[in-house]
Amino acid sequence: MAGDAFLETLVGFGRELRAAGLPVGTGDVLTYCAAMEPLDPTDLLDLYWAGRTTLVTRREQIPTYHRVFREWFLGVPGEPDEARPFNRPAGGRSANLQLPEPEQTGDEREQLEARMGLVGSDVATLRAKAFADCTPEELAALRRIMRTVRLTPPRRRSRRTTPAAAGRRPDLRRIVREAMRTHGDPATLHWRERRLRQRPVVLVLDVSGSMADYSRALLQFAHVTSRSTKRVEVFCFGTRLTRITRELEHRRPDDALARAADAVVDWEGGTRIGASLDTFVRDWGRRGIGRGGIVVVCSDGLDRGDPALLESAMQRLARLCHRVVWLDPHAGTGAPSSLGMTVATPYVDEVLPARDLADLESFARTMATLG
Questions:
Q1: Poorest-confidence range of 35-44, 118-127, 219-228?
Q2: Cα distances (Å, whole numbers) of residue 152 to 127, 148, 225, 365
Q3: Would you tell me how many other CB atoms lie within 10 Å of the CB of residue 363?
Q4: Which of 19, 25, 258, 317 is most exposed, with minimal Cβ within 10 Å?
Q5: 144-193, pLDDT tens digit by residue?
Q6: Secondary structure element (H or E) that encloses residue 235, with its range
Q7: Mean pLDDT confidence for 194-215
Q8: Residue 104's pLDDT is what?
């Protein structure tokens, strides 16, 4: 799996797919290589299905993927049969692809692994690498991998009910209707249960100067969340609060982030956490946004405003919502707590790190347990 020839083959396959019109990026190729790590690299079935599950995102892309796969790995031009992208040899065994394994000395192999490593390890390394330490190419790859993150908000029982197979509350209307059909004799008892409803999620992102290394990645995460989950509101703040939910509704991440950047006038400026949260509680909390939901504040806690105002806003926010979660890029790193974090912590239910993609994935898994 770590051979240079095989890595170049997979990368070249992704390049051919991109040339054929498929939106295959660096992150997709890394995911494809990571999927092939536990599989047999000489088995065409493994190569085909690992690539199809990681590089194809839409049904209409499958014929193009069939054609490029046959041309790249088998050297067979033409349009393939969609049900059989490649022929299987007699005897029921899948065709094997023989790749040349170049002879390498111990030093060359160590240099190769130091430069590229196992592809699966590359993906794991990117996930655990702080956003502030990533190069632009690595950030682009992380944005592609981040699209696979799914946030599952908790649910609550609403007052409305729905028909159920069993329960404690009988469905009297349905029982009476059934009894009228049988001349007053109820043949079956019907039940109702309380309906489950998803709790709203509010993301409040700090885009001040102290968060410059993390703000774009957090906005990308907010875009993925708002696209994959219902009832999500997104706000940004520096010295003032700005709602960017509509700006993030665009399908393309770059366009959505560009619109959000145009809407936020205090990008990479000062920080007034207390005033911004107070505005959210007074202006938006009264309209029902965040009531009974999960409010996630993404900030390092560096506040230039009045600590008393921050404490008052956090106290009212804790009463308004169901849970308050604070994502701090410096949490767990041993850095001293800022004044804002010291004031806000008594009113926060969970303080979680947000230093890298692994932390955001862990937060996405934790969200389902906050109900």
A1: 118-127
A2: 20, 13, 9, 7
A3: 20
A4: 19
A5: 788 878 888 888 888 888 888 888 888 888 888 888 888 777 678 888 88
A6: strand 232-237
A7: 90
A8: 46
**d(C-alpha 143, C-alpha 360), whole Å:** 12
Task: Give residue 73's identity as a one-letter amino acid code.
Answer: F
- Asked if pLDDT for residue 254 goes beyond 70, the answer is yes
Tokens read off for 100: 């040349």
Rounded distance between C-alpha atoms, residue 206 and residue 196, angstroms: 32
- DSSP line for 294-325: EEEEE------S-HHHHHHHHHHHHHHSSEEE
Which burial class, exposed, middle or buried, applies to 261 when counting CB atoms under 10 A from its CB (0-12, 13-18, 19+)? middle
In whole angstroms, give the CA distance from residue 119 to residue 142: 14
Contact 44, 85 (CB under 8 A): no
Token pair for 201: 């999620």
109 Cβ neighbours under 8 A, 6+ residues apart: none
Q: What is the largest CA-CA distance in the chain?
A: 90
Instruction: Give the phi and the psi of residue 237 in degrees, each rounded to 5.
Output: -150, 145
18/24 Cα distance (integer angstroms): 5
CA gyration radius, the chain: 26
Residue 311 corresponds to which tokens in the numbers above?
A: 């404490």
What is the spatial distance between Cα 247 and Cα 280, in angstroms, rounded to a whole number?
A: 18
Q: What string of DSSP letters covers 168-230?
A: SEE-HHHHHHHHHHTTT---S--EEEEEEEEPPEEEEEE-SGGGHHHHHHHHHHHHHHHHHSS
**Higher local confidence (pLDDT), 147 or 75:** 147
Domains and CATH numbers, the chain: 4-88+108-128 (no CATH), 157-198 (no CATH), 201-367 (3.40.50.410)
Residue with tokens 């908790």: 154
Q: What percent of the chain has pLDDT over 70?
A: 85
Task: Give the pLDDT of residue 236.
Answer: 94
